[in-house]
Amino acid sequence: TPPISPFAIRFDAEAATLSPEGPTLERRMSDLEGLFADHDAWQAAVADGDPVVYRVQSSPVPEADRELPQSITTIERGTTAGECWMTKGHQHPNHQGEIYLALHGTGGLLMFDGDRVEWLDMTPGTIGYIPPGWAHRSVNVGDEPYSFLAVYPGGAGHDYGWVLEHGMGNRIHRTGDGFALRPYSA
Ligand code: S6P
Ligand code: ZN
Predict the structure, then answer these.
(1) pLDDT tens per residue across span 5-17
(2) With contact defined as beta carbons under 8 Å apart, do 183 and 124 qualify?
(3) Best label site of 40, 96, 177, 183, fewest CB within 10 Å?
(4) Residue with CA nearest ligand 1 atom 11
């Protein structure tokens, strides 16, 4: 891909939009196979309307080496057998860092390096730093949609298989008065 020319991107934190717009991705429940602990509950949700769990809107900066793309992810509020709705989660194959800026709602950033687990509370204004080598997943633990801006190296890539193989160390469950982190096997 040839490098692109400088241009301005309009960032509307209130509306959680970037313009001009690049590609938009919609992830439905059926796209999250094998990620929730309760497979039957996941399957039932797919059969019952296959809801959109999250959307990712990108700016037109290409996902190519040395570029610095951005995207805004919005995760709907919901649970599947008590587990909070979340992104698939991925590892960057060539271990590059990334930042997230929380915009709306109440979320969290779950990170796992295959050994250690870290959780960051994400409320509007929080920048979460994802160091190289840490798989990352975003979780909506609040009562409204949770949105955040991501800025990441264009050549970082997305390894989703890593998460299917290794998990994310913890699962996030809704409780009576909030949420709880539970070991992955539970
Ligand atoms: C890309 C960055 C985000 C996620 C997005 C969706 O490096 O981390 O743009 O792609 O939040 O999550 P996922 O796990 O489905 O890619
Ligand atoms: Zn990433």
Answers:
(1) 999 999 999 999 9
(2) no
(3) 177
(4) 73
